[in-house]
């Protein structure tokens, strides 16, 4: 429905309503920023803005006038609210740089977690025996995960990427060749097994599950 024509002397509500909506969105976001994940924080702020727009539309039915720009702002806010509502809960509002470096196979935890940021899991220093299997997982909401695995270990990886990319950087062999692998996209999950470089006898197995909501996963040899 097109906005009704302006009446001379009629008060325009568009500017004040937009300003109040921006203030409501800012206030809602600030209140939730320290306590909620990013998606929930944005939903609270945008919902507050939509509430102000809704109140403005009701008021304009009796007093003043809202123009087409306000309608466009309502539609855009609704679209952003829909996008924010589907963000993974483990994407946090804070950004962290984290490094885990277990010194022995027995010190490897069952799982490692990061909200948003850069994480490195360095397993290059552990020593595996023949027939020994070490299993672990790394999960992050957004950012980058880098995992370093022992040179001589068989590595079985299950990587799940909501949106982003996965890279396996193989060591360079004598002729300069390397069996690198990379893939990416939306809603991707793959399971692959990687053997040690040519000339290295396999010893032990590392089972790794990596989950990334939005970002990049990199696996490389020590």
Nearest-angstrom radius of gyration?
A: 26 Å
**Overall pLDDT level:** 87
Tertiary shape: elongated
Helix content: 25-40%
What does this structure look like?
With about 220 residues, the chain is α/β, with parallel strands linked by helices. The mean pLDDT is about 85. Strands 1-2-3-6-4-5 form a six-stranded mixed β-sheet, with no helix packed on it. The termini are far apart. It has three helices and six strands. It has helices at about 15-35, 40-60, 70-85, and strands at about 95-100, 110-120, 135-150, 155-170, 180-195, 205-220. The radius of gyration is 26 Å and the shape is elongated.
What's this entry about, in short?
Helix content is 27%, strand content 36%. The chain is α/β, with parallel strands linked by helices. The longest helix is centred in the first third of the chain and has 23 residues, at 38-60.
